[in-house]
Amino acid sequence: MTVVRLDEVTRVHGEGAAAVHALKGVSLAVEAGELVAVMGPSGSGKSTLLNVAGGLDRPTSGTVEVEGTDLAQVKDLAALRRRSVGYVFQDLNLIPSLTAAENVMLPRELDGVRAAKARHEAMGVLGEVGLAHVADRFPDELSGGQRQRVAIARSLVGERRLILADEPTGALDTPTGDEILQLLRIRCEQGATVLLVTHEPRYAAWADRVIFLRDGAVVDETSAPAVSHR
Ligand code: ADP
Ligand code: MG
């Protein structure tokens, strides 16, 4: 099953002389269970690609389908994102006044899940990322690596089937980065789909496929990269 499909997607930021063509006709299909790494220089359109794939941003032209639904036809994109799409932002976006568990519970509660059930689910994924013992701490009481894992837990809660991770290993030491990739890999084996932006060949090596972007276009694609640690 194709979980996310982009067909000739363009995205132009701004207008006139200031227009930036962030994506120039990108077509891409990612299947259930696939981990696809997106690589490319800064400014090549990686974040824009993730944003349009998850419905955080609308393409200027072309179509984006998530699980067979054309996102242009979806009125409540926020609800679709909360239910089906887990997003790890480059700058994490944890809410400082909420504990780790409360941050992870939030998307579920926004979706109408009772607090007790949401808490139970949050504790489950925090356990998966090795953070059950700090669930009641606030973000500023956690290390950088722990905060990153809270953001990952929030993207996984509620069995979301499409996980979009924008450099989730940025600023992590290698063992912690490897742990995060292992977690994402396990989710894929359980049927989730992951699009992962990374600069690190080491992490891209966990992917089934690597897509290279340059100036808003896919310029190369490799399958089954040499994998030494899987
Ligand atoms: P990457 O994640 O690969 O660094 P981005 O997708 O963030 O690339 O950006 C692609 C291009 O689009 C860059 O030239 C960037 O400056 C531009 N861009 C991204 N977002 C915006 C925006 N909101 N407004 C104007 N230009 C933008
Ligand atoms: Mg980016």
How many domains comprise the coordinates? 1
State the fourth-level CATH superfamily. P-loop containing nucleotide triphosphate hydrolases
- Ligands bound to this protein structure: adenosine-5'-diphosphate, magnesium ion
Q: Would you identify the CATH architecture? A: 3-Layer(aba) Sandwich
Low-confidence stretches: none
Can you count the helices? Answer: 7
**What is the CATH topology assignment?**
Rossmann fold
Average pLDDT metric: 90
Helix content range of the residues, please? 25-40%
Reading the helices and strands in chain order gives EEEHEEHEHHHEHEHEE
Structural class: alpha/beta
Largest sheet: 6 strands, mixed
For the secondary structure, the number of strands is: 10
Relative strand content: 25-35%
Shape: globular
Distance between the termini: 24 Å
The level 1 CATH classification is Alpha Beta
Rg estimate, integer Å: 17 Å
Q: Tell me the strand order in the biggest sheet.
A: 6-7-8-3-9-10
